[in-house]
Design a protein that fits this description.
12 helices; two-stranded antiparallel ribbon; 306 residues; transcription; 45% helix; LysR_HTH_N; WH_DNA-bd_sf; alpha/beta; 3 domains; Arc Repressor Mutant, subunit A; single chain; DNA-binding transcription factor activity; D-Maltodextrin-Binding Protein, domain 2; elongated
Length: 306
């Protein structure tokens, strides 16, 4: 980098464009014309001597140089906010948009309560959250449609950053009238023979069961699968109606365990404890709202095994 003579507005424009993956979106947010946004970005690129964005149709993504500059830009802009607050006594509220995607377990059983606390602290942040299976969540984070994801599995895609935040135990569950109702533990060969209801492909719970079976020399094909269903609620209803047994998160079945409609068992020598993760894509810039939520979430949930 030869020199950087751009002023704060240029860095702010660059940061917003990076966070929204759009020059048009940055213009709307900052109340600038698209020409003004483009001019500020070009000024930065000329000053640095490297392109900061990949242009792909109407969307943009950061180059390696852009990713590096974004980190420094955030430090400069945050320092500016702190200076205003310290010198002028001016409180700078957190505002902006926050887009989240979560798989069914964290999305249904952890996220709602957490968002209530977060929104009470930061009422000027507009939050949008979707609940999908883990693979769909990862796709949304990868495409930039979600700033952060909450999932129950990791993948080998190297541009993802997975941060464990809580441990989750999966249980073998049976109907209260099942012939195994008085047993506390069953052997894996017995499990393989029983009709079982699975979550759909892409589910983190299914992936966890698959990995546990692989460690014992088996695959999902060795199970006697009677149904594959797209939600934990559907799987529970199938078990309650004696369609088969199932393996689900304790969080998903705690109510039915407490009222006695379902019974949980252990599978001998099979580990079904997993971590839940917050995931981000290192190629996409996290806005201040997402950075703040990430810090809040990890501080609120720090019981992962990793």
């Amino acid at each position: 980098m030869n020199h950087l003579d751009a002023q704060l507005p240029h860095l702010e424009t660059f940061s917003v464009a990076a966070e929204l993956c759009s020059f048009t979106g940055a213009g709307k947010t900052l109340k600038l014309t698209q020409a003004a946004v483009s001019q500020r970005i070009r000024a930065l690129e000329c000053s640095i001597g490297k392109p900061l964005f990949h242009r792909q149709g109407g969307r943009v993504s950061l180059t390696d140089a852009g990713i590096q500059l974004y980190g420094y830009a955030q430090q400069i802009l945050n320092l500016h906010r702190e200076a205003r607050q310290a010198v002028a006594g001016e409180e700078v509220p957190l505002h902006g948009n926050l887009s989240l995607a979560a798989s069914s377990i964290p999305g249904q059983h952890l996220l709602p309560a957490g968002l209530c606390v977060f929104r009470n602290r930061f009422p000027d942040v507009a939050v949008r959250a979707s609940i999908e299976d883990s693979m769909a969540v990862l796709d949304r984070v990868e495409s930039g449609q979600a700033h952060l994801g909450l999932v129950g599995q990791q993948t080998e895609r190297g541009h993802f950053h997975f941060r464990p935040f809580v441990s989750d135990e999966l249980l073998l569950i049976v109907n209260a009238d099942d012939r195994w109702k008085k047993r506390q533990r069953i052997r894996l060969p017995d499990l393989l023979r029983r009709p079982i209801v699975l979550r759909e492909s892409g589910s983190g719970s299914r992936w966890c069961l698959q990995q546990a079976l692989l460690r014992k020399g088996h695959t999902l094909d060795d199970l006697n699968v009677t149904l594959e269903l797209g939600s934990n609620e559907a799987v529970k209803e199938a078990v309650l109606n004696n369609t088969g047994i199932a393996v689900l998160s304790r969080l998903a079945v705690q109510r039915e365990l407490d009222d006695g409609r379902l019974i949980s068992l252990k599978i001998q020598d099979v580990d079904l404890v997993r971590d839940l993760f917050v995931v981000s894509d290192t190629r996409h810039a996290l806005p201040r709202s997402a950075q703040t939520f990430l810090q809040f979430w990890l501080a609120s949930h720090c019981t992962a095994s990793a």
